[in-house]
Amino acid sequence: MTEFCNTGIIALFEAFDLPGMTVVRWAVILLLIHKPANILISNILSGYRPSDKMNPDVNDRNAGRMIGTLERIIMTIFLSISQYSAVGLVLTAKSIARYDRISKDQAFAEYYLLGTLLSTIVSIVVSLLFLA
Questions:
Q1: Is the sign of the CA dihedral 27, 31, 33, 34 positive or negative?
Q2: Which of 2, 75, 96, 104 would staple 123 via disulfide (CB 3.0–4.6 Å)?
């Protein structure tokens, strides 16, 4: 059974002309920019998290983490294909979605900016380490 799985995977890589190390590299990249990056950014931002004055019971922590993961994936893909200006589109789209709250709540704006910059730094560092 193991031999069939290995040959099946190898056949899949060959069908799409994907070198095995490229697939492994991207798997490592995706794993790093997901959970370890979320934990790192969450720990750094823990002291800066503003209280939600309007909705104290609302906790969008998981949504924020998923948005951050998707943001890092998209930025890493853009960095890997040398589309550096497209990274700005990701940051702009994210800022437009939160513009109302950013413009009204300075504490949230600072927290948001720190999180976005940390997320961008993680994407750049991982790209430099694994794609250069």
A1: positive
A2: 75
Contact 87, 79 (CB under 8 A): yes
The answer on 27 and 40 residing in a single domain is no
**Alpha carbon 111 to its chain's center:** 17
pTM to 2 decimals?
0.81
- Digit-coded pLDDT (tens) for 44-70: 999 888 876 655 445 556 788 899 999
- Domain containing 6 equals 1-32
- List b or e across 43-79, with b for residues whose CB sees 16 or more CB atoms inside 10 angstroms: eeeeeeeeeeeeeeeeeeeeebbebbbebbbbbbbbb
Asked whether residue 1 carries a pLDDT value surpassing 60, the answer given is: no
Total domain count for the chain?
A: 2
Q: Are 50 and 74 in a shared domain?
A: yes
